[in-house]
Design goal:
With 339 residues, the protein is α/β, with parallel strands linked by helices. Helix content is 29%, strand content 26%. Helix 7 packs parallel to helix 9 (286-310).
Length: 339
């Protein structure tokens, strides 16, 4: 029997949280978020002088009795916030942490271009995509951890009367879930996320380049990915710019294994491209690992700097940290989740 994505005890805690948007909401259905216009909520906004045809139920008789002037009450319009969840299901996301396992990502540019992280490349895939042939894995994969975080964000949104849709992608859009509303729809969301399987080479720019992968209305887009990209930072920039052009407020959750962040390899190893299946004999030394760490730091700092410049929320979420920490501490560091 498949274990639930989220422990039942987490759900009441998630219901006390809400997603925080930095913009006025202009949705299509009634919700709990204040939009930039007046409407029919219960929250008072202002008075306006009465005009023939106004709803007499909004006429304020107390003001009229004091001033002799007719006024009607106006209320804020409250609408839903469209939330889009993007889950990377490329083969690199299926990597499971194991004692001593190295960086694992999609098809490694370092293997077929004779360019490795040790040579100082900042190409996303050149930093990963390879795992030692003789080492196995255990525990949650990056994909399983990403599923849990995505499910938590989706549940917070549904419990808060927001609208949620989800996308699975690698080099193309692998699957999508039409918009859901209400907390009761969480079962359908969890089922869709749980059914996702990793496979295929990843290319975020290609996957998000289709009209089917773009939200039709302004909202908030959450991306869960290890960001091992063939085009590195430039490909990521292209992908994020497409979402911003679609008027999305972006939250980027970067999921890596502990072995990718701090590899502990040594000796002569055969490294296998986790997406292409090709391999290469490599002699791992302390100097090689130091160069890898320096290249990884340049890559992640480049992502962070670009996100800061573009107003994108970015956070690193190592998949070996407890789920409770990932949801209630790491995700909240984005500033997109609050009480």
């Amino acid at each position: 029997m498949t274990a639930p994505l989220l422990p039942p005890a987490f759900l009441p805690r998630l219901e006390r949280l809400s997603l925080i948007s930095g913009r006025r909401v202009r949705g299509t259905a009634q919700g709990k978020r204040r939009s930039g216009s007046f409407g029919a909520s219960l929250e008072f906004a202002d008075y306006r002088q009465y005009s023939p045809g106004d709803d007499i139920r909004r006429f304020d008789w107390s003001v009229y009795s004091r001033t002799g002037r007719p006024f009607v009450r106006q209320y804020w319009d409250e609408q839903e916030l469209p939330i889009s969840l993007y889950l990377d299901v490329s083969a690199s996301m299926d990597h499971r942490g194991a004692g001593g396992a190295a960086a694992s990502s999609g098809q490694a540019a370092g293997l077929h271009r004779e360019q490795s992280a040790a040579e100082g490349s900042t190409n996303g895939r050149a930093l990963g995509g390879i795992i030692p042939q003789e080492l196995g894995g255990s525990g949650d994969s990056k994909l399983q951890y990403a599923k849990r975080l995505a499910a938590a964000v989706g549940y917070i949104a549904l419990a808060g009367s927001d609208r949620v849709q989800a996308y699975l992608f690698h080099s193309k859009l692998e699957g999508s879930l039409p918009p859901l509303r209400s907390k009761a729809a969480a079962v359908k969301l969890f089922s869709f996320i749980q059914s996702a399987n990793a496979g295929g080479a990843g290319n975020m720019a290609s996957a998000l380049g289709s009209a089917q992968s773009m939200p039709r209305q302004p909202g908030m887009a959450w991306i869960f990915s290890d960001l091992w990209l063939e085009g590195g930072l430039e490909e990521l920039k292209q992908s994020l710019e497409m979402l911003q052009a679609a008027r999305q407020e972006i939250v980027l959750v970067h999921i890596l294994s502990r072995e990718e962040l701090n590899p502990r390899l040594s000796g002569d190893l055969r490294l296998i491209d986790i997406e292409l299946g090709t391999g290469k004999e490599v002699a791992i030394t302390g100097k090689i690992l130091e160069k890898y760490m320096a290249a990884l730091e340049r890559y992640t700092e480049g992502i962070s700097r670009y996100c800061n410049e573009r107003g994108i929320r970015y956070v690193m979420a190592p998949c070996d940290q407890p789920l409770e920490t990932g949801i209630f501490e790491t995700l909240r560091k984005t500033g997109a989740i609050g009480v």
